[in-house]
């Protein structure tokens, strides 16, 4: 297949391009600078411009990227940047998919769509929740509408917390545990929808090839864990103590709504569509995912 990938230089995008190519697919990377090789095509999302010929013979477009959610405080300007870096490029690509008749559009989203869902099992039919992240993901997914209206297969990639040898969730947590500051956050009962990087890219590749799957798809591991379970498992893998605990009141005071949504909200998300479609996870448990990531770190 011929696949266009936007956001190909990030943690997930870099690994996905390599995975798709290893599987025999031809990959074209959208870049926001002058193309430097035959596999690159230029684009400028704010201007709505994409190099001519980019979508000739293309079977699928994968849309990743967006500025970081947790690397800066949520000022008004940062909230706008988080929104614009996701919604605007998605609208541009959805329009291009519609205009050029591309059969499939797989676009980024996040489990933040569900808000603070508590302890109930959350599959793809669960309604959206409240909060800034839920609002942003609703807009992000709605931005694909032109592609869907054109008859394209549209998949919303509702990604959880990615466990990777470098980058993602694991890096800062390893640092905290190294200083004996690792442990549960708030009550510890909030669920953390984790996924290994191997399964994140494996699932996206599977969805590129599986024409029977459309709509929202939860990209998470099949065995959800609470924050307390997550930190205990990580402490064991790192051979470090996990007695430290951060009170919820402190998080709300220091980090405001950003801290509350990122650290205290929880979703017990399950990959119902992936499993029903026959995707086989490489890492079914958190222990397996952490062991694989730490082994390659």
UniProtKB/TrEMBL annotation:
Domain DUF1731: 246-292
NCBIfam families with a match to the protein in the record: yfcH (TIGR01777)
Protein name: TIGR01777 family oxidoreductase
UniProt similarity note: Belongs to the NAD(P)-dependent epimerase/dehydratase family. SDR39U1 subfamily.
InterPro entries membership: DUF1731, Epimerase_deHydtase, NAD(P)-bd_dom_sf, SDR39U1
Domain of life: Bacteria
Domain NAD-dependent epimerase/dehydratase: 3-210
